[in-house]
């Protein structure tokens, strides 16, 4: 058997997966406290950080881990909950936008202070500024290679918004 189970590539992806899982677990209780799932939080954040607080449904799918049918289900559920609404696209009848509502923005305002405190404690605060900068550059490089749609719809006035 010639497989090298100590391959540094396995270590690299394993460390990334373990760090992500650990952070996700730290955030879960806080999301539950605010009656929002991690996916709903991601959708709210993507919309709040997008031009005019809206994205085409296809762009929202590209920016999240959801399929187009998954985005439709989440948007429908969040629309019923009053956190977002759908708007028809005036230039393409086949397309529609997901738009964050005032209630959705208010929910984010409730969630963000605690979420940012957790991000600071368990992520940003674990790194020196130079380490953080280098890691963010590296993550953008990887993200752009494996998910080129991750910033779809986030361009406003010719300037790309900071995604993720």
From TrEMBL:
Q: Which Pfam families match?
A: MarR
Recorded hits in SUPFAM superfamilies, A to Z, give: Winged helix' DNA-binding domain (SSF46785)
User: Where do the HTH marR-type domain residues begin and end?
Assistant: 6-144
Q: What InterPro entries does UniProt report for this protein, alphabetically?
A: HTH_MarR-typ, MarR/SlyA-like, WH-like_DNA-bd_sf, WH_DNA-bd_sf
User: Which Gene3D superfamilies does its entry note?
Assistant: Winged helix-like DNA-binding domain superfamily/Winged helix DNA-binding domain
How is this protein named in the record?
Putative MarR-family transcriptional regulator
GO BP annotations of the record are:
response to stress
- Top-level taxon of origin: Bacteria
- Molecular function terms from GO: DNA-binding transcription factor activity
